[in-house]
Amino acid sequence: MSQNVDCLMNFRCFLMFLFLKGNSGLKWIWDINHLFLSSQFGRTEVIDNTLNPDFVRKFVLDFFFEEKQNLRFDVYNVDTRSSNLSKHDFLGQMFCTLGEIIGSTGSRLEKTLSNEDGTFTICHKTEVIKNNLNPVWQSFTLPVRALCNGDYDRTVKVDVFDWDRDGSHDFIGEFTTSYRELSRGQSQFNVYEVLNPKKKGKKKKYVNSGTVTLLSFKVESEYTFVDFIRGGTQLNFTVAIDFTASNGNPSQPTSLHYMSPYQMNAYAMALKAVGDIIQDYDSDKLFPAYGFGAKLPPDGKISHAFPLNSNMDDPNCVAIEGVLEAYFQSLRSVQLYGPTNFAPVINQVARCAADMTDGSQYFVLLMITDGVISDMDQTKEAVVNAAGLPMSIIIVGVGPAEFDAMEELDGDEVRVSSRGRSAERDIVQFVPFRDYIDRSGNQVLSMARLAKDVLAEIPDQLLSFMRSRAIEPRPAVPASGSQSHSTATTTSTSISSIAKGRNTHA
Q: Locate the C2 domain: which residues (predicted)?
């Protein structure tokens, strides 16, 4: 008798609760709120009788590198059993971003376990093998987190069904295993009897409904952006601003560089939008900042990579506010001129990146410009060379100019090439700022939209470089004065299996 077999793999979870109880004294609650939404995300347990509470309950938040995710922590002294916070004493609050937490020394990424009530959740469903009593299923890949959430002894249950076209699939049987058992690979320990509990209870001579044999099992590491940040990889942020004459006289309101006392210009908005997020991943908060396309005092020499702080030996500015201050100061001292050459600044950052290819540093260059590149051939060559380095380039176009030529540098569709060589990675992201400006004039919203889009590719670009050089993240750096914690790398499992049916019980 032929049958169509379908296989479902499930995992079982377990949960442990810890209760702390005290007779009287000080109690604490820690509330997490979204700053902009002003909505409570979650609340910890109450801790009794201590001035130094150590909260156990954890919260799961989606992490977006390209967004500034603001958090607020409120602390209360709890006097009654009431869940109404107005009934308790407010002790204080703290603001931060999720990026600051992840980018800090010794940060840890925590996720709660799902289905800890003893039920199972489907984590993989195989293809259907029709008209075959001995089906061989294709191998498939699963994250270890999806299979067992890092618990190698957690029960994994496999259900086998006889497929029916109308969807009323007949249950053939099941068996259980674990990640630890599967990791033994093809062996006598990974031949499983498929049992049907109902048949076993009704038929005395029932043995099984067939067997499933594991053919292969392989574990591969798949590191994430967070793994590298936790291991100490720093993002080095460099800024390059267009000081060509096409921007207009900075003293005139029509200029893209106009310094209004009431609002930021487009250059400042783009710089702050991107910089405010990236600075959370740079421990020293020192950012090299350059200008290009200007005549410099005192001799009027044209430069395409001059430090905004006028310090040729040390172009670093302290935090994003320092970069903005140096930018405004340069507008008062240099003469806007031209042409619009990108290659000198790209090569400047590339030289720094070439000295740090061990995975400890990754360089992000933000270039803000109002016009078409004058040295396109040299720029393409610089990009091709930089693609082999730990480096990404973000280009933001401001103003009404046509930026069609810029799309050639953004290698989403076709990789940039120069002199017969193609870039080994896509490292350039170009966007025109005008596409993100809020129609109501809300600058905060405009900046958030811009940052989200231009930064979205950075994590994958960083990972592509690390993979190309077979670089693994270093062990997570423990917080100062804290105990070290063992960590497991993000891994995936590749599984192949074969089933054999018994004709008497098909």
A: 1-113
The first and second tokens of residue 479, run together, are 């917080």
**What confidence category does residue 158 fall into, taking pLDDT thresholds of 50, 70 and 90?**
very high
pLDDT number for residue 237:
95
Q: Can you give 70-117 as a three-state secondary structure string?
A: EEEEEEEECCCCCCCHHHCEEEEEEEEEHHHHHHCCCCCCCCCCCCCC
Is residue 402 within 8 Å of 366, Cβ to Cβ?
A: no
Q: Given pLDDT bands bounded at 50, 70 and 90, which one contains residue 80?
A: low
Q: Which amino acid type is present at position 91?
A: L
pLDDT at 379: 96
Q: Which of 468, 367, 375, 486 is nearest to 425 (CA)?
A: 468
Residue 304 token pair: 């395409």
Residue 161, pLDDT > 70, answer: yes
53 Cα distance to chain centroid: 30
Quote the CA–CA distance of 125 and 137 in Å, as a whole number: 11
Select 5-12+118-223+491-505's CATH number: 3.90.1520, 2.60.120, 3.40.50, 2.60.40: 2.60.40
More confidently predicted of 54 and 20 = 54
- DSSP class of 285: -
Let me know if 505 is exposed, middle or buried by CB neighbors in 10 A (0-12, 13-18, 19+): middle
DSSP 404-441: GGGGGT-TTSS--EETTEE-SS--EEEEEGGGG--TT-
- pTM of the predicted protein model: 0.63
Q: What are the b/e assignments for 184-204, b being 16+ CB within 10 Å? A: eeeeeebebebbbeebeeeee
Q: Rounded CA gap, 273 and 267, in Å?
A: 10
Selected residue with higher pLDDT from 412 and 368? 368
Share of the chain above pLDDT 90, in %: 49
Q: Residue type for 87, please? A: K
- Phi, psi torsion values for 279, nearest 5 degrees: -65, -20
Q: How far lies 277's CA from each of 63, 137, 321, 379, 451, in Å?
A: 13, 45, 13, 27, 8
| CATH 3.40.50.2000 fits domain 234-468 | no
